[in-house]
Design goal:
The protein is mainly α. The protein has one domain. The chain is built from six helices and four strands; from the N terminus they run αααββααββα. The relative contact order is 0.16. The mean pLDDT is 89.
């Protein structure tokens, strides 16, 4: 099975659902931007819940501070990240304010810590040694990985947590 295609398909489906919700409920631009980052996180975790159960050759799951060996543990951990990311993306895209945004703030904060702590540790030790690995087939190395993590994931998650907490 093409696991990358599955992950992209999950991400695309999440993006469509979130976009339809935002359009229908007149979401704010900031909320839609936060939702977009959360959809990227969902996409990064799109294949792991199923792959953990079906692929006997799967090497295990590692997403920042979260790790799981093969099987059901992968499905539970990655599935939890996927579910929280998509749920929070929906809330961020469809709400301008209200207590539901505390879920978004908590999700963004948790993901920023889960992804940011190992990233900062790697950058402090050796920025050129940083890497983003998608399964066993695609690795983004060095400074490109550092820039992508800060600019596209960790930075926007921190900004999303602040935005959601202020609007909650």
């Amino acid at each position: 099975m093409n696991w990358a295609a599955l992950a992209l398909g999950v991400g695309l489906a999440a993006a469509i659902v979130v976009a339809l919700g935002a359009r229908r409920r007149d979401g704010s631009r900031a909320g839609i931007a936060v939702a977009a980052v959360l959809v990227v996180v969902a996409c990064l975790n799109g294949a792991a819940p199923l792959r953990g159960l079906l692929d006997p050759d799967y090497v295990g799951y590692s997403f920042g501070l979260l790790e799981a060996r093969r099987g059901l543990a992968v499905s539970l951990v990655a599935g939890g990240v996927l579910l929280l990311s998509v749920t929070s993306a929906w809330i961020a895209a469809t709400r301008r304010s209200g207590p539901a945004l505390w879920i978004v703030a908590a999700t963004c904060s948790a993901l920023a810590v889960i992804l940011g702590v190992p990233w900062v540790r790697d950058v402090v030790q050796d920025p050129a040694a940083s890497r983003i690995q998608f399964g066993e087939y695609l690795t983004i190395p060095g400074l490109a990985a550092t820039a992508l993590m800060l600019g596209l994931i960790v930075g926007p998650l921190v900004a999303g947590a602040i935005w959601a907490a202020r609007r909650a």
